[in-house]
Task: inverse folding
């Protein structure tokens, strides 16, 4: 599934790949029960999105930088440890995903 801030953008992506579309994180987590989420949004939004995922016990893959300061990162990692959630960062997520999606269309 895809969770987007703008319904029209998320809907276009979801239709293209035959997946469900959400603009409400709580609804997505209660409906889909994902094993992991991929956070590919502006950095200033990462903390809120990651915290919601952790609270729902969902593992996280996030593009770098993870959050904007060390205290926020430490708080999220502590919360993740308490909830048995794994966090991984990768600076090349977007490019790798786009490559994989395009390759699957060949």
Result:
């Amino acid at each position: 599934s895809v969770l987007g801030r703008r319904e029209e953008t998320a809907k276009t992506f979801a239709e293209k790949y035959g997946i469900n579309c959400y603009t409400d994180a709580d609804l997505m987590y209660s409906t889909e029960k994902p094993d992991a989420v991929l956070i590919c949004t502006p950095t200033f939004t990462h903390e809120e999105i990651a915290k919601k995922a952790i609270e729902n016990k969902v593992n996280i893959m996030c593009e770098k930088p993870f959050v904007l300061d060390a205290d926020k990162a430490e708080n999220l990692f502590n919360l993740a440890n308490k909830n048995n959630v794994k966090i991984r960062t990768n600076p090349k997520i977007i490019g790798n995903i786009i490559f994989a999606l395009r390759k699957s269309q060949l």
User: Anything to note?
Assistant: The chain has five helices and five strands. The longest helix spans residues 43-55.
